[in-house]
Design a protein that fits this description.
Layout (H helix, E strand, L loop, with lengths): L3 H36 L26 H4 L2 E4 L6 E11 L6 H7 L2 E5 L2 E5 L4 E7 L6 E6 L5 E7 L3 E9 L3 E6 L8 E7 L5
Parallel strand pairs: 2-5, 4-10
Antiparallel strand pairs: 1-8, 2-3, 5-8, 6-7, 6-9, 9-10
Protein backbone atom coordinates (compact mmCIF):
# COMPACT_ATOMS: atom_id res chain seq x y z
CA UNK A 1 0.00 0.00 0.00
CA UNK A 2 1.32 3.44 -0.92
CA UNK A 3 0.99 6.40 1.42
CA UNK A 4 -1.13 9.29 0.11
CA UNK A 5 1.78 11.72 0.73
CA UNK A 6 4.07 9.62 -1.42
CA UNK A 7 1.54 9.57 -4.26
CA UNK A 8 1.19 13.37 -4.05
CA UNK A 9 4.98 13.83 -4.10
CA UNK A 10 5.36 11.48 -7.09
CA UNK A 11 2.66 13.46 -8.90
CA UNK A 12 4.46 16.74 -8.18
CA UNK A 13 7.79 15.34 -9.37
CA UNK A 14 6.16 14.04 -12.55
CA UNK A 15 4.59 17.48 -13.21
CA UNK A 16 7.93 19.25 -12.60
CA UNK A 17 9.66 16.88 -15.00
CA UNK A 18 7.00 17.50 -17.66
CA UNK A 19 7.23 21.30 -17.14
CA UNK A 20 11.03 21.17 -17.49
CA UNK A 21 10.74 19.08 -20.66
CA UNK A 22 8.11 21.47 -22.05
CA UNK A 23 10.35 24.48 -21.27
CA UNK A 24 13.36 22.82 -22.97
CA UNK A 25 11.24 21.94 -26.00
CA UNK A 26 9.94 25.54 -26.21
CA UNK A 27 13.49 26.93 -26.04
CA UNK A 28 14.73 24.57 -28.76
CA UNK A 29 11.69 25.23 -30.93
CA UNK A 30 12.09 29.00 -30.47
CA UNK A 31 15.75 28.85 -31.45
CA UNK A 32 15.01 26.71 -34.51
CA UNK A 33 12.20 29.04 -35.60
CA UNK A 34 14.38 32.12 -35.11
CA UNK A 35 17.23 30.64 -37.15
CA UNK A 36 14.80 29.48 -39.84
CA UNK A 37 13.19 32.93 -40.02
CA UNK A 38 16.52 34.71 -40.08
CA UNK A 39 18.08 32.44 -42.68
CA UNK A 40 15.70 34.04 -45.17
CA UNK A 41 17.76 37.22 -44.72
CA UNK A 42 20.64 35.79 -46.75
CA UNK A 43 21.12 36.40 -50.42
CA UNK A 44 21.90 33.85 -53.12
CA UNK A 45 25.38 35.37 -53.39
CA UNK A 46 27.60 34.27 -50.53
CA UNK A 47 27.96 36.89 -47.79
CA UNK A 48 27.73 39.82 -50.22
CA UNK A 49 25.26 41.66 -47.99
CA UNK A 50 27.78 42.00 -45.17
CA UNK A 51 30.45 43.57 -47.35
CA UNK A 52 31.02 47.28 -47.62
CA UNK A 53 29.92 47.40 -51.26
CA UNK A 54 26.38 46.43 -50.28
CA UNK A 55 24.01 49.20 -49.22
CA UNK A 56 22.38 48.68 -45.83
CA UNK A 57 18.92 50.08 -45.20
CA UNK A 58 18.75 52.16 -41.97
CA UNK A 59 15.06 51.30 -41.40
CA UNK A 60 16.06 47.67 -40.74
CA UNK A 61 17.85 48.75 -37.53
CA UNK A 62 15.87 49.69 -34.41
CA UNK A 63 15.78 49.58 -30.60
CA UNK A 64 12.97 47.87 -28.62
CA UNK A 65 9.54 49.43 -29.03
CA UNK A 66 7.15 49.97 -26.07
CA UNK A 67 6.17 46.29 -25.97
CA UNK A 68 9.79 45.10 -26.26
CA UNK A 69 10.88 47.53 -23.53
CA UNK A 70 8.81 45.55 -21.04
CA UNK A 71 11.22 42.65 -21.71
CA UNK A 72 14.48 44.64 -22.06
CA UNK A 73 15.30 48.34 -21.82
CA UNK A 74 18.09 49.54 -24.11
CA UNK A 75 19.80 52.93 -23.92
CA UNK A 76 22.83 54.48 -25.60
CA UNK A 77 24.14 55.95 -22.33
CA UNK A 78 23.81 55.37 -18.62
CA UNK A 79 25.48 53.85 -15.59
CA UNK A 80 26.20 50.11 -15.65
CA UNK A 81 26.74 47.60 -12.87
CA UNK A 82 28.51 45.21 -15.27
CA UNK A 83 30.27 45.42 -18.62
CA UNK A 84 30.80 42.86 -21.39
CA UNK A 85 32.89 43.13 -24.57
CA UNK A 86 31.67 41.18 -27.62
CA UNK A 87 33.98 41.07 -30.65
CA UNK A 88 33.46 39.92 -34.21
CA UNK A 89 35.99 37.43 -35.54
CA UNK A 90 36.85 36.11 -38.96
CA UNK A 91 36.96 32.33 -38.96
CA UNK A 92 37.37 31.67 -42.69
CA UNK A 93 37.27 34.47 -45.28
CA UNK A 94 38.20 34.71 -48.94
CA UNK A 95 41.23 36.94 -48.27
CA UNK A 96 42.95 34.50 -45.90
CA UNK A 97 41.23 31.14 -46.57
CA UNK A 98 41.43 28.26 -46.19
CA UNK A 99 40.24 28.22 -49.78
CA UNK A 100 38.49 24.84 -49.53
CA UNK A 101 36.52 25.94 -46.47
CA UNK A 102 35.43 29.20 -48.10
CA UNK A 103 34.38 27.34 -51.27
CA UNK A 104 32.28 24.87 -49.29
CA UNK A 105 30.78 27.11 -46.59
CA UNK A 106 31.30 30.68 -47.78
CA UNK A 107 32.85 33.24 -45.46
CA UNK A 108 32.47 32.34 -41.78
CA UNK A 109 32.41 34.86 -38.91
CA UNK A 110 31.68 34.50 -35.20
CA UNK A 111 30.82 36.54 -32.11
CA UNK A 112 33.22 36.15 -29.19
CA UNK A 113 32.04 35.43 -26.60
CA UNK A 114 28.92 33.85 -28.04
CA UNK A 115 27.47 33.02 -24.60
CA UNK A 116 27.37 35.08 -21.40
CA UNK A 117 25.14 35.63 -18.39
CA UNK A 118 23.69 38.80 -16.89
CA UNK A 119 21.33 39.45 -13.97
CA UNK A 120 17.71 40.59 -14.28
CA UNK A 121 17.15 44.30 -13.56
CA UNK A 122 20.92 45.00 -13.51
CA UNK A 123 22.06 47.61 -16.05
CA UNK A 124 24.77 45.98 -18.16
CA UNK A 125 26.90 47.76 -20.74
CA UNK A 126 27.54 45.54 -23.76
CA UNK A 127 30.21 46.85 -26.12
CA UNK A 128 30.45 45.44 -29.63
CA UNK A 129 33.72 45.72 -31.55
CA UNK A 130 33.51 44.98 -35.26
CA UNK A 131 37.15 44.10 -35.91
CA UNK A 132 36.77 43.71 -39.67
CA UNK A 133 37.80 46.66 -41.87
CA UNK A 134 35.64 45.60 -44.82
CA UNK A 135 32.61 43.74 -43.41
CA UNK A 136 29.38 45.02 -41.92
CA UNK A 137 27.83 43.07 -39.08
CA UNK A 138 24.65 43.47 -37.02
CA UNK A 139 23.30 42.52 -33.60
CA UNK A 140 19.72 41.23 -33.48
CA UNK A 141 18.33 40.34 -30.03
CA UNK A 142 15.59 37.68 -29.78
CA UNK A 143 13.51 37.04 -26.65
CA UNK A 144 12.96 33.58 -25.12
CA UNK A 145 9.55 33.66 -26.86
CA UNK A 146 11.22 34.22 -30.28
CA UNK A 147 10.25 37.92 -30.48
CA UNK A 148 12.82 40.12 -32.22
CA UNK A 149 13.45 42.92 -29.74
CA UNK A 150 16.08 45.02 -31.50
CA UNK A 151 18.43 45.15 -34.46
CA UNK A 152 21.56 47.30 -34.54
CA UNK A 153 24.22 47.87 -37.20
CA UNK A 154 27.83 47.12 -36.22
CA UNK A 155 29.89 49.14 -38.75
CA UNK A 156 33.44 48.07 -39.68
CA UNK A 157 36.23 49.06 -37.28
CA UNK A 158 33.78 50.61 -34.84
CA UNK A 159 32.67 50.18 -31.26
CA UNK A 160 28.92 50.19 -30.69
CA UNK A 161 27.75 50.19 -27.08
CA UNK A 162 24.35 49.84 -25.41
CA UNK A 163 23.14 49.70 -21.81
CA UNK A 164 20.81 46.70 -21.45
CA UNK A 165 18.47 46.08 -18.52
CA UNK A 166 16.67 42.76 -18.89
CA UNK A 167 13.33 42.63 -17.07
CA UNK A 168 12.59 38.94 -17.65
CA UNK A 169 14.74 35.92 -16.86
CA UNK A 170 15.43 33.33 -19.54
CA UNK A 171 17.64 32.40 -22.45
CA UNK A 172 17.84 35.13 -25.11
CA UNK A 173 19.37 34.57 -28.54
CA UNK A 174 21.35 36.99 -30.64
CA UNK A 175 22.41 36.78 -34.24
CA UNK A 176 24.13 38.83 -36.92
CA UNK A 177 21.25 39.38 -39.33
CA UNK A 178 23.78 39.76 -42.15
CA UNK A 179 25.51 36.41 -41.41
CA UNK A 180 22.82 34.43 -39.52
CA UNK A 181 24.08 30.96 -40.38
CA UNK A 182 27.36 31.34 -38.50
CA UNK A 183 27.20 34.42 -36.23
CA UNK A 184 24.91 33.74 -33.30
CA UNK A 185 24.94 33.36 -29.55
CA UNK A 186 22.94 33.40 -26.33
CA UNK A 187 22.49 35.55 -23.23
CA UNK A 188 21.30 33.86 -20.06
CA UNK A 189 19.39 36.25 -17.82
CA UNK A 190 19.67 35.06 -14.22
CA UNK A 191 17.59 36.10 -11.20
CA UNK A 192 18.62 39.38 -9.52
CA UNK A 193 21.72 39.30 -7.34
CA UNK A 194 21.12 38.70 -3.67
CA UNK A 195 21.30 41.97 -1.68
Amino acid sequence: MVCGCQVLEEGRNERRGKENNDMKLNLILGAVLAVAALSGCTTSKREMIGNLGQELHPESFYLPNAEGSRVVSVATNGVASASILVQTHRVAVKETGPKETVEKFGEVYAFSPNFFAVHRDEPTKIRFWNLQPDDNHAFMLISPRSQVLMSSALPPLNETAYFFTFHEEGLYSFVCSLHPKTMFGQILVLPPRAP
